[in-house]
Amino acid sequence: MKRILIFFCLLCLAAPAAIAADDTRAVIARLASQLRVKPSDISPAPIPGLYRLMLGPQVAYVSADGRYFLRGDIVDLKTGHNVTAAARDQARLAFLGQIGQSDMIVFAPQHVKRSITVLTDIDCDYCRLLERDRPALNSMGVEVRYLFFPRDGVGTPSWNKAVSVWCSANHKAAFTEAMEGKPVKPRNCNAAPVAAGYHFGQLLGINGTPAIITDQGQLIDGYLPLPDMASILGINPHKGASSR
Q: Mind spelling out the 3-state secondary structure of the chain?
């Protein structure tokens, strides 16, 4: 009899949790339909009554009734942890994974220790500084992956240069020459990768280049001198690695 009583007590304790889980699934399904997103894009936030909403590489929050939409960071004052920043880093990486390296110009060392993805503009002086640092980054084991983000938009000279570089027979050589300020021979092809990089930059809300995303999802807004970049990546600048 005692064992039976204990069993029913445990069932009573478990029931609210099960009901809560069912309620959460129902709320997520309703919000997904209301906001026209996938249910997987919505999850409970640390604050009761709020749900985290993944919008491409961005993170926002919505109330359970779908009435209120919030943009901003949630910080756990007990631990000092910015839970939104961590979610945002994951969202950037997930979105980059959808683009894939096939739409990037990749300079990789033989042994990759870290990697960065750079939204770049051929006519950006600071982007050219970063490209000058790129061989040194490669030698430290840092893979540098470029996505085009012509800041002035579609159809501008910077856009056309990006398209011409992408449409060249040798992406890397054409990109290197363009970043050195050499004339870019006009070319045309399916330049969807240029559009993909531009779209990603727009979703991120950036208006300057270079915009650098580390392999942990951290966004670095602008050029950093080589020692500072190495420090953020936790790389010893005095240890080299051959490139390819």
A: CHHHHHHHHHHHHHHHHHHHHHHHHHHHHHHHHHHCCCHHHEEECCCCCEEEEEECCEEEEEECCCCCEECCCCEECCCCEEHHHHHHHHHHHHHHHHHCHHHCEEECECCCCEEEEEEECCCCHHHHHHHHHHHHHHHCCEEEEEEECCCCCCCCHHHHHHHHHHCCCCHHHHHHHHHCCCCCCCCCCCCHHHHHHHHHHHHHCCCCCCEEEECCCCEEECCCCHHHHHHHHCCCCCCCCCEC
